[in-house]
Amino acid sequence: MDKPITRPPANSTQKMRMTASEAFVETLRANSVTDVFGIVGSALMDALDLFPAAGIRFIPTVHEQGAGHMADGYARVSGRHGVCMAQNGPGITNFVTSIAAAYWAHTPVVMITPESGTLTMGLGGFQETEQLSIFSKLTKYQGHINNPRRMAEITARSFDRAMLEMGPTQLNIPRDYFYGDHEFEIPQPMRIERGPGGLKSLDEAADLLAAAQFPVIVSGGGVVMAGGVDASVALADLLGAPVVNSYLHNDSFPSRHPLWCGPLGYQGSKAAMKLVSRADVVLALGTRLGPFGTLPQHGMEYWPQNARIIQVDADPKMLGLVKKISVGICGDAKSAAEALRQRLQTRSLAGKANREKRLEEIRKEKEAWEAELDGWHHERDEWSLGVMKGSPYMHPRQMLRELEKAMPDDVMVSTDIGNICSVSNSYLRFSRPNSMFAAMSFGNCGYAFPTIIGAKLAAPERPAIAYVGDGAWTMSFGEIMTCIREKIPVTPVVFNNQQWGAEKKNQVDFYSNRFLGTNLENPSFAGIARSMGAEGIVVDKLSDVGPALRAACDAQKNGKTTVLEMMVTRELGDPFRRDALSKPVRFLDRYKEFV
Ligand SMILES: Cc1ncc(C[n+]2csc(CCOP(=O)(O)OP(=O)(O)O)c2C)c(N)n1
Ligand SMILES: [Mg+2]
Fold first, then answer.
1. Chain-centre distance of CA 590, in angstroms?
2. Has residue 241 got a pLDDT over 50?
3. What is the mean pLDDT of residues 445-464?
4. Could you tell me the sign of the dihedral formed by the alpha carbons of 230, 232, 238, 244, in that order?
5. Distance 420 CA to ligand 1 centre (A)
6. How far apart are CA 275 and CA 218, in angstroms?
7. pLDDT beyond 60 at 6
8. Going by CA atoms, what residue is nearest to atom 25 of ligand 1?
9. Residue among 393, 399, 403, 417 to mutate when testing ligand 1 (max atoms within 8 A of CB)
């Protein structure tokens, strides 16, 4: 998974005279940084100039938000830091959305933010803004170089903390502090081993699991981050426990495994929900059980209210935060799974008596869900039935099923925020971790495309696909130029339904089809792609979907980015936020029709 680093580590034991820029770049080197995403600016020039000699590639992007997302995708695939860097002021404010997204994805992104010079700060000069307060709630650590002599120390700490706390950190550097020479010692990276958690709580958890009649494992993002999928599989095998993926972590358990039941959450697997609802003990492994990820779905309140819940999370603040728990374990998901298996392997397990019956239930529920998906060609609500009538375009669900069937082995898929991207949750299955990159809890449109570009740079041998709605595409397609200029080939699959569909669904359900700001008139996305130097293909027939996806993924081997413009009807799946909207109420005459 990790890219092998061939360069020797920076000299760590000796103090040496060097400039602050050199100390900064040497500390990046010590942290095995080989790629930095960003946009040039005068504030970072002195350090940037050294990158080639330090073996660091600078990947210029179209927008700093893209750079932040690329760093996110890069880190999520490689298990290493993602690094981004930009010009003080506007370059840095452009990072905000991508750093917020990385925060909620728990991604170790190090954002380097040169700021205005110390001698003019406060005078309202050029490109000056408070760069620390903006990110104070979006980062796990903010390192500020308050004296150039501390360049190496604080740079190193920003890298350490991103890994330690699994989230973005900021390294804020007054731009004049890159200059001047001092004695520097380059610290070696500090990586802390996380253990399985408290021994008493592991014992209690093992007791609960040993006595469970119907144990279920929720395998979360923490399992992926800990490299713990094999440990999760081994524990599930021992218990004969169904395993469900937490929301948008479909790569946290191999989908070909007989115990895999699919994802929970919005547009997730009915099989997963039915099985978790029968649990008497749930092992929530590496998941914070986020509130959005366990909302009722498909008309089902599936969370087992009376089950005993064991929660394992590396962040103690997540334990019992959203769901009541019986046992909380602050530990690494992989080590905890291994420790639980060790405790259980010699014990008699109550769930063994009905193991075969449970396996049969899993088989039956999965078969029923697959059959339902096979027959679920289109949405059946009144709006969808109306718009699909006479439409020459594809039904989104059928298209998603075809894409699923054509997925190459070892694929990486990023997904955006939108109605069709959300519906895709049921159709995205993976055989290995570090394969799915969704916009997670921050939920920003425009996430998927730049993120997959970063992922592809980290794993050039793996096919890379982004699922993006047409609205979100117009926020992000500028980064096609990064693919072309930097030769990072990926395959965006753009769902052209000519609407901001997810939001339109709210207008259908709550606002009597008053469509304000949700219809889109689109140019030819395939044409735009071609004019930017990529391939652009319009797909409007179901039988062309699979071949087009396979050809586009093959073309990545020749360095080619292909935009697939999928022409789909305006059907809309279940809404995102039924939980958060209410029927409109109006008191004033002027607005009385608006109900
Ligand atoms: C940056 C940002 N702006 C606005 C939203 C609100 N929003 C959520 S989904 C959505 C519609 C997405 O439309 P599109 O990308 O076309 O996908 P579709 O729903 O049509 O499948 C919008 C605008 C958001 N999540 N993020
Ligand atoms: Mg759309």
1. 44
2. yes
3. 98
4. negative
5. 10
6. 11
7. no
8. 444
9. 417
The H-assigned helical ranges of 94-173 are 96-104, 131-134, 151-164
Q: Is 469 in the pocket of ligand 1 (CB under 6 A)?
A: yes
- pLDDT above 70 covers a percentage of the chain that reads 98
Is the whole-model pTM more than 0.85?
A: yes
142 token code pair: 């903010």
Q: Which two tokens stand for residue 280?
A: 């008497």
Provide the pLDDT for residue 14: 86
Does 325 have pLDDT greater than 50?
yes
Contact 491/562 with Cβ under 8 angstroms? yes
Going by C-alpha positions, the residue among 265, 278, 239, 437 that lies closest to residue 365 is: 278
The DSSP string of 452-493 is HHHHHHH-TTS-EEEEEEHHHHHHHGGGHHHHHHHT---EEE
Given a contact cutoff of 8 angstroms between Cβ atoms, the answer to whether 383 and 508 are in contact is: yes
Q: Which long-range contacts (CB under 8 A, 24 or more apart) does 544-551 make?
A: 545/394, 545/399, 545/402, 545/403, 545/406, 546/402, 546/403, 546/405, 546/406, 547/406, 549/403, 549/406, 549/407, 549/465, 549/491, 549/493, 550/406, 550/408
Percent of the chain with pLDDT over 90: 94
DSSP state of 165: T
Residues 6+ away with beta carbon under 8 Å from 316: 328, 330
Structural tokens at position 228: 């713990």
- Contact at 8 Å (CB) between 491 and 549? yes
Question: What is the total residue count of the chain?
Answer: 595
d(CA 150, CA 127): 24
pLDDT for the residue numbered 13: 60
Question: How far is Cα 22 from Cα 392, in angstroms, rounded to an integer?
Answer: 60
Give φ, ψ of 470 to 5 degrees: -65, -35
